[in-house]
Amino acid sequence: MKWFYGLLAVLGVALPYSQLLPWMMDHGLDSSRLLEEIAQTRIGSFAWMDVLVSAVVLIGFILFEGKRSGMRLLWLPIVGTLAVGVSLGLPLFLLLRELSTERKK
């Protein structure tokens, strides 16, 4: 499973950033335009609200489950979630959990 989670973590960075980086090349760090485009449609707002709630839930899960399991490096998937999103944070946490479980055996 660790290879699967590792691959998903790589895709979790590559796919979202394949859309963000070209937008940033066109518009730079225009945060007001970014927020405007995010909220331009109800379906776009729906998707972003879902992502925000999922990110908060994931960070709570990382902290709770990670501490309960005695995992280290919990800051890494939290930073990944904040810098990229759930698409990186979740598979990275699951990868770290697999590695932690292997180490304990």
Summarize the structure.
The protein is an all-alpha fold and 105 residues long. It has helices spanning 2-27, 31-38, 42-68, 75-83, 86-104.
Note down, in words, how this protein is organized.
- The protein has 105 residues and is mainly alpha-helical.
- The chain has one domain.
- Helices cover 85% and strands 0% of the residues.
- It is built from five helices and no strands.
- It has helices at residues 2-27, 31-38, 42-68, 75-83, 86-104.
- Helix 3 (42-68) runs parallel beside helix 5.
- It is elongated, with a radius of gyration of 16 Å.
Keywords:
mainly alpha; elongated; 105 residues
* Overall number of strands: 0
Task: Report the biggest beta sheet as strand number plus sense, adding barrel if it closes.
Answer: none
Order of helices and strands: HHHHH
Give the tally of structural domains.
1
Shape: elongated
Radius of gyration from the alpha-carbon trace, in angstroms: 16 Å
Report the total helices.
5
Query: Which class best fits the helix and strand makeup?
Result: mainly alpha
Give the terminus-to-terminus CA distance. Answer: 16 Å
Instruction: Name the average pLDDT.
Output: 95
Q: What percent of residues adopt helix (DSSP H or I)?
A: over 70%
> How much of the residues is beta strand, in percent?
under 5%
Low-confidence stretches: none
Oligomer: single chain
SSE map:
Elements: H1 2-27, H2 31-38, H3 42-68, H4 75-83, H5 86-104
Helix pairs in contact: 1-5, 3-4, 3-5, 4-5
